[in-house]
Amino acid sequence: AGGGEDAGGCQPPAPGGAAAPPAAPAAPAAPAAPAPAPVAPAAASAEDAPASQAEKLARQAPEPEVEAEKMEHCRAKLRAAPDLNPSQRAAVEATLGRRCTVIQGPPGTGKTTTAVHALHSWVNLGIRPILATADGNIAVDNIAEGLAKRGVKVVRVGRPEKVQACLEALTLDAQLRARQELQRREEADEAQRKRLDVLSKISVAELLARLRERHAGAASGGDAVKDSAPAAAAAELGVAGELQAMLDSAARRELVAEQEAEAFEEAAQRAERSEADLAAESAAKRRAAFRAEQQLRVQVLQEADVVCTQMISAGGGVLAPLGPFQGMLIDEVGQATELTTIVPIVQRGCQRLVLAGDHCQLPPTVQSREAESRGLSVSLFGRLVGQGVTAFFLDTQFRSHPKLAEFSAEAIYDGKLASGIGAEARQLLSGFQWPSGQVPVAFVESGREARESAEGESRLNEQEADRLLDVLEGVLDAGGCDVSDAGVVTPYMAQVRLLRQKWRERCAARAKAAKAAKEKAEKKRKKQQGDAPAPSASEVNGAPQWWRTPRDLEIASVDHFQGREKELIVFSSVRNNGGGKVGFLSDWRRLNVMLTRARRGLIVIGNAWTLRHDPMWKKWLAWCGRHQVVVDRQELHRAVKRALREPGLGRGPKELLKGLFDLEQAPRQPKPFKALLRSLSADEGPSPGPEDLRAAWAAFAAAREALEAEAAAWEAEAEEWAAAAAEEEAAAEAEPSEVPAPARKKRRRPSLGEEADAENGAGEQAAAPAASKRRAKGEPSAEPAATAASPAPARRKKRQRAAEQSAEDAEAESAAEAPTARRKRSCSRRRKPSA
């Protein structure tokens, strides 16, 4: 049997079979302890172990029994169903011959599909009436939609505003209105048909009498009349046709006139009667109309194969005329209290009962601690499983990427939950730099500075909210998914309100910026193209324009998202404090629900130090560490600081390291970081190693190329300045009186010629011994290339004169100008690539 559930969470079933139902305690017990760690569910099998008393009762055959031929035909259809896996098929077949069937469906295992097949099988067996109910409207709507697609007559009972718009035609009110409209049309058509029949009969009788008279006159007219009889008959037929058309038109006009006369007569009679008579008649009509409506409502319900309603409405008087139900299915029973579930069972009665749910997801919400301590938060699902009733476990999930379901399958379902969908069917979403290309999960460290704050009894975290929306905007801008396919989840309602407010503000700001860009582009287009057709909005602003529909993004709590799914889930944990308090995040079932909502991507933003104080969160963070999906900027910062303190690290790698850290492209682990620095300082290439080490080498190479290109640009600019200074010096020597010294100082720009000459000289001195060594070894000399690369002697003299002039000018400059020149020279030296 699967794991049971008490007031706090899942517990293993008591050994030794069934226990007596718990009696109500005489005094309040102590508050319930926090939810313990989950116990893995066992695969259901009715013959695995000796059955308990509760299991024996559940196995009893329901009454009345179904014919064996029908039962075998239904089982054959189930075996041929292409959308059922073995565990689902076993659960559905169990519902055909058991009084009580318990189905445990982990997230994404097709629990709704299994429920729809069970109800459809009952309909095929002739079991009626049937009630399908759940604690929430979403689960009820999903069942009703699935049954309607299979051609089952469904009536959805409940408030129309709580029902999805696509299912409005299935509601009881909509079907009642349609039936009333049909009755009114039928009554009106019948009345009009009767009146037309009466008028038609009278008119035809008169016409026949006229024709008889004319025929009698023609008979007394002799042979001449007989000779003209055919022509006369034809004329009479034409006249008869015209008369009939006139009579039809007259009949319709007479009918309209008669109806108007009746209306005037009724209005006159109403005017003559007293107000009391009118009130009495109106009340009587209302009572008659109400009785007729109630009868019609009952008729609609009785003609339905399955009635779907919320659990809180199942015990009401709307369903009372139907009597006891032959079959009842309760979905998401783990979310409902035991008392709430018992109401429809006792009030409506049933011969077959199916309970579908998962006690490893969120339990019923009970506000009173005293009620919780008295066991009122226990679900009927957990009670029956704890008493030894077999739970049929659905063992294959089809919702999420296999890696998204991996942790829950291992830590919560003891490895018994498999994935029926491959990774290729759930591609990574673009717009976010996933730490691993194989795992669509990321834990983004918010940092110690992103502290939580209180709002009443709730909590919020503003910096986490900003970080979350930044991540989400990146995905939406890149077209990774539609805004309606993304979901923002957080455990606290204060954070929900904050995120909704910030989201509206961001959408308004983006819409304003897009409008300004469009106007600017339109002005530019008119200036360049004149009256050419204007481009579309997507061409101007770039697709997609998600900010136009801010309400399409669903931002809600974890409890609200149970039973839902999205392509992308971005979660804000909120809790970030010095005491390591996680609040009700300590409920492992809430973590299970959060991890299993996403289909293609999950991004969690939080503070690892705080979350590690909870055992289940600590396990999940360890799983993230093993798969290298942690994005921690602070760890990057610490790794860079440690690496910069490494002995023997040259100036070049340090500069590259700083630039690389600014680009936020550094590796995530400090050990590969240090290994890469050692290889760089030894002037060696990367050795084959982990993926992040190769990525780090690629990032370093890109940063080094960028710095080298920038240094080359500085050298080219320095040469231009030196040439300009030499030309000015030559002009000054040719005409010294026309170019005074102060003017030359003002026109002068900081020259790097002196540094360039010094470096060229050092390079030539260093190159001479190397060239002599190469000649001694017989190697080809590099002097021609060096000569070609070196400047001409005349140009070198100009540079020397420019350098001398620069030295003289530097001595004459004021103290205020000296720091600026020193800063520029140090900047130029820092930009040059090291040897």
Automatic annotation (TrEMBL):
Record keywords: ATP-binding, Coiled coil, Helicase, Hydrolase, Nucleotide-binding
Start-end of Basic residues biased regions: 821-835
Entry keyword annotation includes Coiled coil: yes
Biased composition (Low complexity): 8-30, 40-51, 759-771, 779-793
GO MF entries: 5'-3' DNA helicase activity; ATP binding; hydrolase activity
CDD domains registered for this protein in UniProt: SF1_C_Upf1 (cd18808)
Annotated DNA2/NAM7 helicase helicase domain residues: 84-369
Name of a matching Pfam family: AAA_11
Stretches for region Disordered: 1-72, 514-543, 711-835
Coiled coil, from the record: 254-281
Keyword Hydrolase: yes
Span of domain DNA2/NAM7 helicase-like C-terminal: 376-608
Biased composition (Acidic residues): 716-736
InterPro entries per UniProt: Coronavir_polyprotein_1ab, DNA2/NAM7-like_C, DNA2/NAM7_AAA_11, P-loop_NTPase, SF1_C_Upf1
UniProt record similarity statement: Belongs to the DNA2/NAM7 helicase family.
Protein's recorded name: AAA+ ATPase domain-containing protein
Organism: Alexandrium monilatum
